Each structure stands twice: as structure tokens, then as C-alpha cells.
Records
---
Amino acid sequence: MSAAIYEEKQTDKTIAIVNTQAPFSSADGKEALDAALIFGSYEQATSLFFIGDGVFQVIGEQNASAIEIKDYLKTFSALEFYDIENIYVCQQSLTERNLMANFHIDNVQVLANEAFSQRLHQHNVIYRF
């Protein structure tokens, strides 16, 4: 197989990054965002998924200064620059936490459980944080 064909097949991979943790409960949220930006910088087709407590990462009411750690949530604004436009939030997770769809980033699609799962499983590689 020639190098050009091999490289082309590598770029055809789609990557899903699943966020399951609240933004400041661990380093997982920041690490997931960093991974997305790295994949984006290599022009990999990357999508972000938020489920469970991970939905708190995209809700506009976060205050990192209250717990005295660096606020990485502002970095979400860079997603568009890296062509990461597929951002999915689980409707059931929002409902279970009594959260409104008040997002601090653009291009967020709220999906019911089945649609969320179907969209997630369309990806070749799935990373869970």
C-alpha cells in the first residue's frame, strides 16, 4: 500500500470524545478538550459528546473562581477555529439534572438517548473521559 493511500485512510477516521464528568470534579474535562483540539489541529474529524455530569461542561453558569482552579471552559471558544462543529448533548442528562439548554458555546445539538447513541456509534474511534 502506498504512503498516500495509507495517509488518506488515516484521515477518514472519525473520532468521538465523550465527556462524562462535571467540569471541575477532575482533570478529565480539560484533558478531553485538549485531546479534541489536538485532533482538530491534525484535521481529524472530531465530535464532542456530553452525557451524565459531562453536560455541566457546556452549561453557561459555571464559576471556576469559586473553587480556585483555572477555568478551561473559555477554551471551548477555540473549537470553531479547529473545525470542531459537531457537539452533542444528551437530552435525558439535561432533564435529570433540571438544566436548561443554556450553552456557552455554539453548534450544540441536543439529542434524545437513541439518537445520541446512534450518532456516537457512527464514529470509528471513541474516547471516554
---
Amino acid sequence: MNKSIFEYKKYKKYLKNALGAGRRTGLKMALAKHIRCQTTYISQVLNKSAHFNLEQAYLVCEFLQLSDLETEYFLLLIQKERASHKQLIDYLNKKIELILNQHLDIKKRVISTRELSEEDKTVYYSHWLYLAVHIAVGIQDYNTKAKLTAYLSVDTAKLNQVLDFLLKVGLIEQVKGEYRMGPCHMHLESSSHLIQHHHLNWRLKALTAVEKKQNSNMHYSMVCSLAKKDVGKIKDQFIKIIKENNMIIGESKEEVLFCNVIDFFEV
């Protein structure tokens, strides 16, 4: 498992770990193709005195799907390695320390915060992806950036934005390159103004699921007329089913990500 980039002071050591040094992973060849150079040049950078230029370094960050803060840190490490002027090296060291302190501040804030603020909840319920990623990291097969990108079919830049937010507020944690559930809680009162956003997010997602026509999915729509006295009975049935399903889900192993949307309303 890859360590966090913030555990490294030398970018080459981080890259060797990220590319699986000593193992034939094929990542070195894929990286060379991404930054448009020969694999021999990658080897020279990793094992000799050669360095990436800043454009290549940025493409490396893109290839490794680093967040904005991770990218800034990686670029500073490279600039420091390329620098020879003492005052410039001292300046870069200060910038590096600032980034590390910012990273540590986020971790401290995560530990001390157990419930999200209203402002953070507004961000969380602004798009379905925040909740999807939050829950998906609990599935072992989807707890890295690369796996989440493929599984959820999302843009890397958007995923990085979501991961950065979830890490910042403590809903998820990152340990040795893998994500997992964090210490913070997410609870939305039924009276909250955000509940409408939550329902809309997942009903819009349900529409896209209908178009996929997957055999594992189930979609049912019916319009009917019935006696007023029976409306309450059907609502009670739905509530019973929801409770029974929650008991099953609570004891179920995390393997796949599903959405359950139930609507029963007067037209």
C-alpha cells in the first residue's frame, strides 16, 4: 500500500513507492506515456541525478491523481531538488513546512470535529457524488482514487475536489494511500432545508440508472386510485420494509454501492 506523499521529504522516494519499485507493475511505462517521454528517462530520474521539469512534474501529479494540496507539495519537493541557491532552498523549505502544517491542521480539525457545520452540510448535499464517495470508501474494492474513478465513472478533477472536502471535514480518512470512513457523523433532520437537495440528487441519479438497463437494478412505477383509509396502511407497509431492509444492510458485508429510492405521493 502506498504511503501518503506528506510522509516524504524526497519526491524520488515517494515516486518509487507509488510506482511499485522492485515490482513489474507496468506503471513506469504508463507514466512515461502520460508525460510523453521514454521509460529510460523515468529510470534516470528515479535512480540518477536527472529531474523532471515543472511541466512533467505536473503531469506526474495528474497521472497519480493527486489532490491540489498534494500536487502543490510534490511540485515544491521537485523545485527544492532542482535548486542550487541556498536562499531559494531556504524559501522552498518554508513553503514545504507551510504545506505540511496545513495538512496537519486538517488532520487535527478532523479529530476534534464530530459533526458537520451547516455550511459543510450544504456542500455535502450539493451533489450526489459526495455521499456516494463517502459510502463507497467503506468497500475494500473501491477505496483508492483509481478504483473510485473507474467505479463511479467520474472526472478525476471532480473526484479530487470531493475527496479533499470529505478529508477536510473528517467524513473519510486516508491511510497509506487508501481511504476509509472517518470519525465525523452525518445526520440530516427531516425538517432541514437540505433534505430537498438530498432527495433530488438521488432521484436524478435514479433516472440515469433507468437508462443503463442493468439486470441487477429494479425500477417500478405505478399510478393507482385507492380509498383514503388505505393510504396509511400502504405507508406503514413501506416503513416496515425500510426497517427490515436496514437490519439486513446493517449486518451485510460492504461489497457494492446501491441506492434505495421510495416515492409514494398523491398526484
---
Amino acid sequence: MALLEVRNIKKNFGKTEVLKGIDFELEKGEVLAIIGSSGSGKTTLLRCLNFLETADKGSIYVDGETVFDADVEYNDNEIREKRLKFGLVFQSFNLFPQYNVMENLTLAPTLALKKKKLSGVEKKVALESIDQKAVELLERVGLSDKSNAYPCELSGGQQQRVAIARALVMQPEILCFDEPTSALDPELTGEVLRVIKGLKGEDHTMIVVTHEMEFAKNVADKVIFMADGVIEEIGTPDEVFGAPKSEKTKAFLSNSLEKI
């Protein structure tokens, strides 16, 4: 059974049909790269997966559990609970400027802890565990010396690596990236891509919306090319990049690869 199953996801904004019926599956530990021109629906799809937008039709399953069904109305608590299955790293970092790096990482799990009925001792142990996890993640992304720094004191690449660590601290089953390098200068792009590549080696399941074609070719297990709100082509990197079937895919790749 696939870890993630997406079935017939549709999304309209007014009269504009942005997603026209998206279907795909993702196995545990796989990396999916989603490519396509601006306006093709890539980011909207990620936002629907993370419950930042509500799809008008369709369903989403994680590890056999229905986490979204357009025919079901969910309350805020249910949405918050289901959202925890996904982590999202935004293209513009979205760190809290008033908090230092360590506080950015520990804020969400600490708030979640407050909702649990724990004894004083249990709470103390849990808080220590959160801090330890944050320290480990900062080391993993190469920023163990920046725990007390504030976002304004970090480069764009460092901020994005903090954002990745912040998403990981909640231990999502599926980690999503929305153009994680688009706000970075070229010299900072490599450090972020290396972190994402390293996560693949640790068997994380990931969806990466990206304009980095070489990264998609070399790291992804599966590639989706989206155009006009549909999946125009899906396959392995060799299939999509090496032998595309769709004329739209061929035109997009020809234009994209010329810019590399």
C-alpha cells in the first residue's frame, strides 16, 4: 500500500479551475519532484495537501487512513490533527522574526504539548525531549552554532535550513517543499539542496515543487510535470527527462534546460 494516495483533487478559485483532477501515489521513502510553469497548480496542490487550502472535490489518504474527503466537513481540531501528517517548507522561509532559531524550532511542539494532560514530571521530560530533538536537527542541517541567532542575523540559505529543521521537529510523515530555493541567490541554493538530498538518505518521504531541473533529475524517484491544472506527465526521472511523451513536457523541458 502506498503511503500517500491522492485521488481526483479539484480546486477552483471563483470561476478559475486551478486543479482539474489530480491523482498520484507516493511510496514511503520516495522523493517526488513536481515541475511545471508558474500557474500550473503546483503550489495550490501542496497547499491542499497541507490543509492551507480546502479542495472542492477529491480525497487524500495517508498510510491507508482517510485524512481528507471533500464530502466531509472537518472542524478546526480535526484539521490541525490531520495537518500534522504533513510538514511544509515555504519558499520565503516564514520564520518568526521575534524568536531566535531554537525558539522557532521548539514553539510548535511546545504549544502542542500544552494541550496534553501531563503530570509535572512528564511535562519536564517532554520539554527536554523537544529541546534535544531541536539540537539534533540543527546539527543535521549544519547550524548547531546558530541556536541563539535571530532570523535577521542569518543568510537566506541558513534561514531556509532552519525552516527545514522546524518542519522536521514535528516528525511529519510527508515533508513538502514549495520552491525551497527560489528566494535564494545561486551560491546559497546548493547548501539547501544538499540538506534535502541528505534527508532522502535518511528515508524521508518528500514532495518537492522545484524549478531546479538537475536536482529533480538526480534526486527524485518520481517526477510529475503539471500544466494547466492537470498532471500532464508522470514517471521516473529517466522517463520524464529522457523520453517525455507529451509535447507540453518536451517544450517545457527544452526551455528550462536551455537556461541551466
